[in-house]
Design goal:
The complex is a heterodimer of chains A (248) and B (254).
Chain A: E1 6-17, E2 20-31, E3 35-39, H1 46-53, E4 61-66, E5 69-70, H2 75-84, E6 85-88, H3 100-111, H4 116-129, H5 145-157, E7 163-167, H6 175-190, E8 194-198, H7 202-208, E9 211-216, E10 219-224, H8 226-231, H9 236-247
Parallel strand pairs in A: 3-8, 3-9, 6-7, 7-8
Antiparallel strand pairs in A: 1-2, 1-4, 4-5, 9-10
Chain B: H1 2-19, H2 34-44, H3 46-72, H4 77-92, H5 95-112, H6 121-146, H7 150-158, H8 163-193, H9 205-216, H10 219-253
Helix pairs in contact in B: 1-10, 2-9, 3-4, 3-6, 3-8, 3-9, 4-6, 5-6, 6-8, 7-8, 8-10, 9-10
The chains are: A alpha/beta (248), B mainly alpha (254).
Bound molecules: adenosine-5'-triphosphate and magnesium ion.
Adenosine-5'-triphosphate binds next to strand 2 and helix 1 of chain A.
Chain lengths: 248, 254
């Protein structure tokens, strides 16, 4: 532990794409152990926010501090922050030319200096955790979407992150595969993994979230525990969004 | 097979030409006469230099092209601009002036810097060919690397790979199937352009043909054979390129 009680501290962050302001004065603190779910309409800046936390985008104003380390242009601190974060993408982003096992061992071997046997043992351990140890020698292209996303989650776990970011982990999946991925994430939540999940799966949010955040047009409009969030949304925009999404 | 028909066609032309002695003087390279045989051996002796020259030049160009291409894809302007300038500049210079400059000019520049090396025709030709080709190689790398989805780079970053590791283990292995076939094609270009090395005295195919023409005075026959020699080389390489393209395509599906 770095000694910081907060996994993520975001204060007054702004982010522009050219003239377009994608994030407006975002302030958000995520203590260790919290499961935060972010929702909001398309284009509201959810991905941008999550990507800023992993420095896949650089924020323009304000401060982002991850486990006591401020994100700046300094390569060493970016590397340090990334080593504490596991990032799961909507499109899985597995390496198609490598086997599942190689996908899982690449980071531990090259970035962490583990020996191959150590890395493979660890990879098999986490493949069992996501219930697909038998797929270790296949290429990602031979797996179903749900299996690919579980491999992507295992790839993060192999690096033993302190917190995980999920950007719409089930949006690219066929409906029948959503549950198997959400179950894996739920297991992690139950075990106490700190996580920020962007999702529109409200059933999952109710079960997993300690806190809900609603974003619209680059701003955080609501931040509340799930029971309060779902029963008494404060803003009209959030109410409208929840009505739309819960109808389906 | 297209390769076989083309070779057969050129051989037929060659032999048909041998029959009409009033137009052609094939005796200069008639393998049945001792003099003709010596001439043929002299001409074919250029293959080694042409092939070696082209192989070294294309290898250097592949390395140089990567060194030029990588900063060209940076998000930082000060890294991108030199790469862009190099590519535009080198692409604009015709090979022959480049060759003259490297062979006659570069030693003078080096000498003024206190470096005393003479550049022989072999290495002069290699440097000029490699530099001139590297601008194209760089563009091939760029196209190949940019064809890889951005998510792959990002996934590599999030699992903690450095830029070099990301290139080495994630990006290049995937880009290679888009890069190798056009690079092999570029090899054909180098083989053809290596003929210019003759003007600075490099003893390759073209130079030997020229020398024989001067002593035997049978330009028609000797240059015809010269063309057939290049044709053969290029056909072999393009058969290799097609094989490579098929293999890369098969890999992609598998
Ligand atoms: N690289 C970029 N360049 C320009 N504009 C961008 C870029 N990335 C995002 N944007 C814009 O920023 C805004 C927020 O995008 P973002 O992807 O964060 O939204 P989102 O909430 O994740 O939406 P979705 O639910 O569709 O994923 C959008 O209007 C988008 O067009
Ligand atoms: Mg998004």
């Amino acid at each position: 532990m770095q000694g910081s009680a907060n996994a993520i501290e975001i204060s007054c962050v702004g982010k522009w794409f050219g003239d377009y302001q994608a994030l407006k004065d975002i302030t958000l603190t995520v203590p260790f152990g919290e499961r935060l779910v972010i929702c909001g309409p398309s284009g509201s800046g959810k991905s941008t926010l999550v990507r800023c936390i992993d420095r896949l985008e650089a924020h323009d104003t304000g401060r982002i501090v991850v486990d006591g380390i401020e994100l700046t242009n300094d390569a060493a601190s970016i590397a340090q922050v990334r080593s504490e974060i596991g990032m799961v993408f909507q499109q899985f982003n597995l390496f198609p030319h490598l086997t599942v096992l190689e996908n899982l061992t690449l980071g531990p071997i090259k970035a962490r200096g583990l020996s191959r046997p150590e890395a493979e043992a660890r990879a098999m351990h986490y493949l069992e955790r996501v219930h697909i140890p038998e797929q270790a020698d296949k290429k990602p292209g031979q797996l179903s979407g749900g299996q690919q996303q579980r491999v992507a989650i295992a790839r993060c776990l192999c690096l033993e992150p302190k917190l995980m970011l999920f950007d719409e982990p089930t949006s690219a999946l066929d409906p029948e595969m959503i549950a198997e991925v959400l179950d894996v994430i739920l297991d992690l939540a139950v075990e106490g993994m700190t996580m920020v999940v962007v999702t529109h799966e409200m059933g999952f949010a109710r079960k997993a979230a300690d806190r809900m955040v609603f974003m619209d047009k680059g701003e955080i409009l609501e931040s509340a525990p799930p029971e309060e969030f779902f029963t008494a949304p404060k803003t009209a925009r959030c109410r409208k969004f929840l009505n739309q999404i819960l109808q389906h | 097979m297209r390769l076989k028909t083309l070779i057969l066609l050129s051989l037929t032309l060659f032999i048909a030409g041998c029959g009409q002695l009033n137009v052609w003087g094939w005796y200069v390279i008639d393998p049945r006469t001792p003099a003709g045989w010596i001439n043929i051996k002299f001409l074919l002796g250029g293959f080694g230099s042409t092939i070696l020259l082209s192989l070294i030049a294309v290898s250097l160009s592949m390395v140089l092209g990567l060194i030029v291409a990588l900063p060209g894809m940076s998000s930082r302007r000060w890294l991108r601009i030199p790469s862009r300038v190099y590519i535009e500049l080198v692409r604009a210079v015709p090979l022959l002036p480049m060759l003259f400059w490297v062979f006659y000019g570069l030693p003078v520049v080096l000498k003024s810097m206190g470096i005393n090396i003479s550049i022989d025709p072999f290495w002069g030709a290699i440097i000029a060919l490699a530099v001139s080709d590297s601008a194209f190689t760089a563009e091939i790398y760029r196209a190949g690397i940019q064809s890889i989805p951005k998510g792959q780079v990002e996934a590599g970053q999030t699992i903690g790979l450095t830029y070099a590791q990301n290139m080495r283990y994630v990006i290049l292995p995937q880009a290679i199937r888009r890069i190798l076939p056009p690079l092999a094609n570029q090899f054909i270009y180098i083989v053809k352009m290596s003929a210019f090395a003759s003007v600075i005295g490099m003893q390759e195919l073209t130079r030997r043909a020229n020398e024989l023409v001067v002593t035997e005075y049978r330009p028609l026959e000797i240059y015809t054979l010269l063309i057939v020699e290049y044709l053969l080389l290029v056909l072999i390489i393009s058969a290799f390129v097609r094989w490579l393209e098929r293999r890369m395509g098969a890999d992609e599906r598998g």
